[in-house]
Design brief:
The chain has 2 helices and 7 strands. The chain is an alpha+beta fold. Strands 1-2-3-4 form a 4-stranded antiparallel β-sheet. Strands 5-6-7 form a 3-stranded antiparallel β-sheet. The longest helix is centred in the C-terminal third of the chain and has 24 residues.
Length: about 110
């Protein structure tokens, strides 16, 4: 599972920010963003997708200025740990999540 790109894995989407890969046999999803790796099931992926979508819809509420630069700060369920993205990185994150969700649906139709 997730040992390089094998025939047992589906690359759902990748861009400059990271990649999202699904294992065909166990259906687990690996989300790699910069140096963060998060492995989850479909339900957790959907929950993360909804969280990113909500932040995108209410973006002004999540933008903070740090050292004269604007960042999108997303609170995680882990105490005292937040994810922080530049505006460009957040745009890449939304694109990564959206395209991956579409590709998951395409693979469900054809597999």
């Amino acid at each position: 599972m997730f040992e390089g790109h094998s025939n047992n894995e589906i690359i759902l989407h990748e861009n400059e920010l990271g990649s999202i890969i699904q294992c065909k046999s166990c259906q687990k999803i690996a989300i790699t963003i910069n140096n963060i790796l998060y492995i989850c099931d479909e339900k957790e992926f959907h929950s993360l997708f909804e969280m990113v979508e909500l932040v995108d819809q209410q973006l002004e509420d999540y933008i903070f200025e740090i050292m004269n630069k604007k960042f999108v700060v997303i609170d995680t369920r882990i105490k005292k740990i937040n994810l922080i993205f530049s505006l460009n990185q957040f745009e890449q994150l939304t694109e990564l999540m959206n395209q991956s969700k579409y590709m998951k649906e395409v693979h469900k139709l054809f597999c």
